[in-house]
Amino acid sequence: MTGLDVSAPPVPRSEEVLTPDALAFVADLDARFHERRDELLAARRSRREEIARTGRLDFLPETAHVRDSDWTVAPVPADLRDRRVEITGPTDPKMAINALNSGARVWLADLEDANTPHWRNVVGGQLTLRDAVRGRLAFTSPEGKEYAVADPARSPVVLPRPRGWHFDEAHLTADGRPVVAALVDFGLHFFHNARELLAAGSGPYYYLPKMESHLEARLWDDVFTHAEAALGVPHGSVRATVLIETITAAFEMDEILHELRDHAAGLNAGRWDYLFSIIKNFRDAGPGFTLPDRNAVTMAAPMMTAYSDLLVRTCHRRGAFAIGGMAAFIPSRRDPEVNERAFAKVREDKTREARAGFDGSWVAHPDLVPVCEEVFDAVLDGRDNQLDVLRDDVSVSAADLLAVGETPGERTEAGLRGNVRIGMQYLHAWLSGNGAAGIDNLMEDAATAEISRSQVWQWVHNGATLDSGEVITRDLVERLVAEEHDALGGAVDEDARRLFVDCALGDDFPDFLTLQAYDVLLARGD
């Protein structure tokens, strides 16, 4: 008895990961931790209601002793001490092999925002990771081109990113209740690979997305501690890097590291989801929280600089690594002008991060690995990291983190059209099974699509104006949706168009675009 029911389309080789013992392990995790997860989601809703009522956030008075006392996280394992360049991407075999051959120090193997949770992707991602750990990952394209890992000994350290706490996996149920998707993604990977990774001198390392409080970090820590004991691996074998990509988590960086201190490796400045979180939480807080065009909001904005500097200071004070975010620009091997612009933008972004004290940063394309590495090499000057850069000059207040109204830039019709067009195009790609899509020479994933639709919702519901003076209304957006959909010439299906309109213009604000889209996948039988 596994305790789980599997109701899903057939996937080749699924029996290799969906073994009775593996499913029993996931069932145990879900039975132990599902209700706590539900309580934490309810706490999110209560906190959001409080923000809507007060229009403010602040550091928690009840955890001041954690922020004010001296402590550090456990020493980071040797193979995670140099993270100067990390590549992100989905776990299909071809993309995985490209990442493993990229020369990056870390590969964020994304089971979350860059991955559509079609069942074939959920199972296929686990197969890819399992094969990679065992040195047998290979792929042959439909055209007959063969892909293989060039030198497994020089491959990046792999950090899978499971789905966030908000997601359930409908294809696996326990007593008729869908299993928590984060526990599926983590549980299957940990069960199949933890011992093999430790035997090879590494360990089960993860990126953790979309947390909103230190209590959610405490839940992850309890999951890790139980999983280690259940498989008989040493306590502290798991190491997690937490994405600080919600505005509420930004006020609890110390507390999050403290909860995970036996399992923590660092924090990451997940800038795109962070912007989405600000819009989502303060969407009805008035014009002072209304942002300009998405592409006008850079890390030079006062609130983003405050967030970035606080993250570096917090991490290095606690002996944890500070990892920079992903510049969305992607190069083109066919267009020298696009290529030059992408390289320049990425170099500028990584230079700012390296000078701010980050230990490394993300890229989304193998061609950008040398650019990021060169920038950090120059600043590191022979060191593996910048843990010695304590940033004692940084002092960030709640007002600094919430200085949304000080963000320079305009709202333009081009920006509004871009949100509409990109939102629809990305949803079409997502529903088709591709969670990471290159659109207009930018890498779009679920986080950037969330910004696009949430900005439209916020602008409409706050009566924001364009630089022309025109008020952004539902009628205006519906006209632009029709025009952009027609201009795409059938490249976006009706489901994607409908989903965007529902999430961008509905009276209610869906917490996550991908949950609405997941219902469409399930209705299609995926």
Keywords:
526 residues; alpha/beta; TIM Barrel; Malate Synthase G, Chain: A, Domain 4; 2 domains; eight-stranded parallel sheet; three-stranded antiparallel sheet; 15 strands; 47% helix; globular
Ordered list of secondary-structure elements with their pairings:
Blueprint: E1 5-6, H1 20-54, H2 64-68, E2 85-90, H3 93-100, E3 106-110, H4 119-133, E4 138-140, E5 146-148, E6 157-161, E7 168-174, E8 177-180, H5 181-199, E9 205-208, H6 214-231, E10 239-243, H7 247-250, H8 253-259, E11 264-268, H9 271-281, H10 302-317, E12 321-326, H11 336-356, E13 360-363, H12 369-380, H13 398-401, H14 413-431, E14 437-439, E15 442-444, H15 446-461, H16 474-487, H17 494-505, H18 513-524
Parallel strand pairs: 2-3, 2-13, 3-6, 9-10, 10-11, 11-12, 12-13
Antiparallel strand pairs: 1-7, 4-5, 7-8, 14-15
Structure, explained:
With 526 residues, the protein is of the alpha/beta class. The protein folds into 2 domains: 9-399, Malate synthase, domain 3 (TIM Barrel), CATH 3.20.20; 410-524, Up-down Bundle (Malate Synthase G, Chain: A, Domain 4), CATH 1.20.1220. It has helices spanning 20-54, 64-68, 93-100, 119-133, 181-199, 214-231, 247-250, 253-259, 271-281, 302-317, 336-356, 369-380, 398-401, 413-431, 446-461, 474-487, 494-505, 513-524, and strands at residues 5-6, 85-90, 106-110, 138-140, 146-148, 157-161, 168-174, 177-180, 205-208, 239-243, 264-268, 321-326, 360-363, 437-439, 442-444. Strand 4 (138-140) and strand 5 form a beta hairpin. Helix 14 (413-431) packs across helix 16 (474-487) and helix 17 runs antiparallel to helix 18. The radius of gyration is 22 Å and the shape is globular. The model has no long low-confidence stretch (mean pLDDT 96).
